[in-house]
Design brief:
Number of strands: 11
Mean pLDDT: 95
Order of helices and strands: EEEEEEEEEEE
Radius of gyration: 13 Å
Number of helices: 0
Distance between the termini: 40 Å
Strand content: over 45%
Structural class: mainly beta
Low-confidence stretches: none
Oligomer: single chain
Amino acid sequence: QAQLVESGGRLVQAGGSLRLSCAASGRPFRTAAMGWFRQAPGKEREFVAAIGWSGNTYYADSVKGRFTMSRDNVENTVYLQMNSLKLEDTAVYYCNADHLFYNYWGQGTQVTVSS
C-alpha cells in the first residue's frame, strides 16, 4: 500500500524556520511530481510548492523566497524548508504525489506560527 507520511510540523515563533518532511513508501515516486499544499482553518486547501521529477521547482507567490522544496529520490522523501515564517503560514500542510497513473495525499502535519 503506497502512502505519504508528513512530519516536522510544530509550534514556532514568527520569523523562525521549520523543515517539513514527506516520506513516501510502497512504491517508487521518483517519476512523480511532488507537491506541498496547505489548509488554514476556514479556508480551502491551497498550493504551496511543487517539484518535478527532474528537480524543477514551483512556488506560490506567498512563499516565494522564503520556502524551498527539495527531493531525495534515493530516500523517497521530499522536504519543505520554511524560513521567515509568518502568522499567515499557520495551516495543516499536506504532501501530494501526482503521476499519470496515481495521485496520493498524506495525512497532513500541523504548522502553527505564533507572534
